[in-house]
Design brief:
alpha/beta
Length: 557
């Protein structure tokens, strides 16, 4: 029997239904207290993160529908979740089982396959590989578990069968299966909305109510299909996530995440069908979402359908993965952000400051550069204070923005100590413990969050065909340049007599071409290779590498 809708139901509007949140309140889980607070979209508030299994966290994330190239919006979402995952694992010592699905059965994939003259398997496999490669380039950890809808259709069918048997789904005469939203009183409790789902379907006139959504689509000629109790067909969009997540985690998930555009209808529909399947009111304890990404000057979200995307290879042509990761850390993970040249200036500057500080600190630790007498007590007090602030910030809904601010304050204090006037009467790099402790802490924290501040140098130095490391080569160039520059300067004019100063000026004028050449070499190395040389009034010149943008000079300090 087909169910007909009246004309009155053809157009529906969003309805905010806060009473559902009161009728179906969040229940505090029984389990392991972590000391972390997390924003739960279900309650619209921060709550204590409690694990259902001590020391272990079950996390499901909606993966991509693989029909086109991933873009900066995907990159931002998955880097943000990667940072949170690393914080949980590396800072709070929680074992995270991170599961992701690939939606590789979908109308968009079928349409793309027809357009390019390939099979749906060829299209989905290609874009799945592209996605995994792009995530690796962004240093995003691979999921602990990956499943594909096409590999688990039998699980989907069994999931739907239970919903039909329990009266939460109905079968139409054409072989479609719909979820019966009115059978579940809590529908709308997550998004607090009820609206006709946005997914397109050929079978709207079969639905009992506009908000009912497809669980199973009947077969159409030229499309892939599987046998089922309702005839040949394929899964709808929403059911795949519920069936796959339930296969791995059963009836309880600690964290469920996805992009902000999935709140409704996708996550609402997931929650409804999963709560009904597992006979529970709280299939997921915490729902988190990453904010959407806009191009600078564009009010619309970045999406394939709008044609306003920037692909991940295009992103990495201009910026490094470290720079983009820093961009993702500078705003709360749930906040919408604009991506573009202006937005990327600050993360590039912060990384350059961190890299520069590391180079100066390492020179001090190894007894190079001017001799300064740092205050170890001051530095150790600031380090202890920063460690406390950072841990507190990360425990407060993973506040990386405050963490970065505290870290840069520590760098500023350390740089101030290292910039004190030199003292020729002290031994170089005396009592370096505090500077070494700060450097070690920053290196460890950045590594824990997925950064590698030394990867560029090490990648060159590890070349199997290189008889001399890049570091040795740059040292040789820097020292040669320093000798040429010292000769061209002709001596220390600051402490010279008037007669000596006059001779030095004549010498410098006659060797100005040499001085210009050393400056040009310094600028060339900075612009083309990100190698920054710093000349000191006393002691040898030092150098360090920064992550350089494709524009070259914009990476300069």
């Amino acid at each position: 029997m087909a169910f007909q809708r009246s004309a009155q139901t053809l157009v529906t509007k969003k309805k905010c239904i806060p009473e559902l949140a009161r009728k179906y309140p969040w229940t505090r889980p029984q389990g392991d207290e972590t000391g972390i607070s997390i924003y739960n979209f279900y309650t619209r508030s921060k709550l204590p993160l409690i694990l259902s299994t001590e020391g272990n966290l079950k996390w499901y994330v909606c993966g991509p529908t693989v029909y086109a190239e991933p873009h900066v919006g995907h990159a931002c979402s998955f880097v943000r979740f990667d940072v949170i995952r690393r914080i949980l694992m590396n800072v709070f010592d929680i074992n995270v089982v991170f599961m992701m699905n690939f939606t590789n059965v979908d109308d968009k994939i079928i349409d793309k396959a027809k357009k390019v003259g390939q099979t749906t398997e060829q299209v989905s496999s290609h874009y799945e590989s592209t996605f995994l490669k792009n995530m690796q380039q962004l240093n995003v950890l691979r999921p602990t578990v990956v499943h594909r809808v096409s590999d688990n259709v039998q699980n989907v069918i069994e999931f739907i069968e239970r919903l039909v048997e329990s009266g939460h789904a109905y079968v139409t005469g054409q072989g479609s299966v719909f979820f019966h939203c009115d059978s579940y009183e809590g529908y709308g409790s997550l998004s607090r909305m009820k609206v006709l789902p946005s997914e397109k379907t050929m079978f709207d006139d079969q639905k009992m109510k506009p908000q009912d959504f497809l669980l199973w689509k009947p077969h159409k000629v030229g499309e892939l299909f599987w046998d089922s109790p309702w005839g040949q067909g394929r899964p709808g969009w929403h059911i795949g996530c519920s069936a796959l997540a339930s296969k791995v985690f059963g009836g309880k998930i600690d964290i469920h995440s996805g992009g902000g555009d999935l709140k409704f209808p996708h996550h609402e529909n997931e929650l409804a069908q999963s709560n009904c399947y597992h006979h529970t009111n709280q299939w997921v304890n915490y729902w988190i979402h990453s904010g959407l990404v806009h191009r600078e000057g564009d009010s619309e979200k970045m999406s394939k359908s709008r044609g306003n995307i920037i692909t991940i290879p295009e992103l990495l042509e201009k910026y490094t993965s470290n720079q983009f990761r820093m961009f993702c850390l500078l705003k709360p993970y749930a906040m919408e952000v604009e991506y573009g040249e202006n937005a990327m200036k600050k993360p590039v500057q912060i990384l350059n400051k961190l890299t520069s500080h590391r180079a100066v600190a390492q020179s001090y630790i190894h007894g190079e550069g001017p001799s300064v007498d740092v205050s170890n007590d001051v530095l150790m007090q600031h380090l202890a204070f920063t460690q406390k602030i950072v841990r507190s910030a990360l425990a407060d809904n993973f506040d990386t923005q405050q963490m970065i601010s505290a870290l840069m304050s520590l760098v500023q204090v350390c740089n101030r100590e290292l910039s004190k006037p030199s003292n020729k009467n002290i031994i170089k790099a005396r009592e370096v413990y505090s500077v070494a402790a700060i450097t070690s802490y920053i290196d460890k924290l950045m590594s824990q969050l997925g950064f590698n501040l030394t990867s560029k140098l090490e990648s060159h130095a590890d070349s199997a065909n290189s008889s001399q490391s890049l570091e040795d080569i740059i040292n040789s160039v820097t020292h040669f340049r320093e000798r040429v520059r010292s000769f061209a300067l002709g001596g220390d004019a600051a402490n010279a007599t008037d007669e000596e100063k006059s001779l030095i000026r004549v010498h410098r004028d006659s060797h100005s071409a040499l001085l210009d050449s050393t400056d040009q070499l310094r600028d060339k190395l900075a612009d083309t290779a990100g190698i920054i040389i710093k000349d000191a009034d006393e002691g040898p010149s030092t150098w360090h590498m920064i992550e350089k943008t494709s524009d070259g000079p914009s990476a300069r300090e």
